[in-house]
């Protein structure tokens, strides 16, 4: 209104909770959460509906991560040269569903051939708990055996012929889309 106080622009990140503001404050207090932590919990519950939060890491504990995926995992058993040597079995998730909790400074990376796959492993214990696969460079391949107990219900394993990588990936109907949210 003319002559009234000027309207203030909302602070970045501020939002009006309306009639839910008291409920929001009580929820934060009851669970001892910051506003950001409470918002993340709500967003995770909504965005990752039907998924569970798995946690895991390397053997020595220097590298820890969380990943949102089904409790029923679709794991690839690849026979390419490096997967055979490492016994690398993995399931694929979009990058948006993976979070490195600690250990970025304790990871090192090995690449070969096309250098698209980023084989990350712990500098201390040598365990590869996740990596960036060539088939899905915008996602992560997670080693199910590096997940903490209690969140996996079933594992279905699919063999993939990594010795003939280009042919196998071209013929596979879904592998390239597994890193899409």
From TrEMBL:
Query: What PROSITE patterns does the annotation carry?
Result: CENP_V_GFA
Q: Which InterPro entries match?
A: CENP-V-like (IPR052355), CENP-V/GFA (IPR006913), Mss4-like_sf (IPR011057)
Parts forming coiled coils: none
One matching Pfam family is GFA
Q: Where is the CENP-V/GFA domain?
A: 54-166
Sorted alphabetically, the keyword list is: Metal-binding, Zinc
A single Gene Ontology molecular function, please? Answer: carbon-sulfur lyase activity
Source taxon at top rank: Eukaryota
Q: Which family does it belong to?
A: Belongs to the Gfa family.
Q: Which PANTHER family match?
A: CENP-V_GFA DOMAIN-CONTAINING PROTEIN, CENTROMERE PROTEIN V
What is this protein called in UniProt?
CENPV protein
């Amino acid at each position: 209104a003319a002559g009234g106080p000027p309207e203030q622009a909302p602070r970045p990140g501020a939002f009006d909770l309306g009639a839910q503001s008291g409920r929001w404050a009580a929820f934060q207090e009851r669970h001892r959460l910051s506003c950001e932590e409470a918002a993340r919990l709500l967003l995770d519950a909504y965005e990752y509906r039907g998924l569970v939060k798995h946690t895991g890491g390397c053997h020595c504990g220097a590298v820890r991560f969380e990943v949102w995926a089904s409790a029923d995992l679709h794991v690839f058993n690849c026979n390419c040269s490096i997967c055979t040597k490492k016994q690398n079995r993995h399931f694929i998730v979009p990058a948006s569903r993976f979070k490195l909790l600690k250990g970025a400074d304790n990871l090192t990376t090995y690449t070969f051939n096309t250098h698209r796959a980023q084989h990350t492993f712990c500098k201390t214990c040598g365990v590869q708990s996740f990596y960036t696969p060539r088939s899905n460079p915008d996602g992560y391949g997670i080693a199910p055996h590096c997940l903490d107990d209690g969140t996996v219900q079933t594992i279905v394993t699919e063999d993939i012929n990594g010795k003939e990588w280009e042919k196998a990936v071209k013929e596979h109907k879904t592998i390239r889309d597994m890193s899409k949210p």
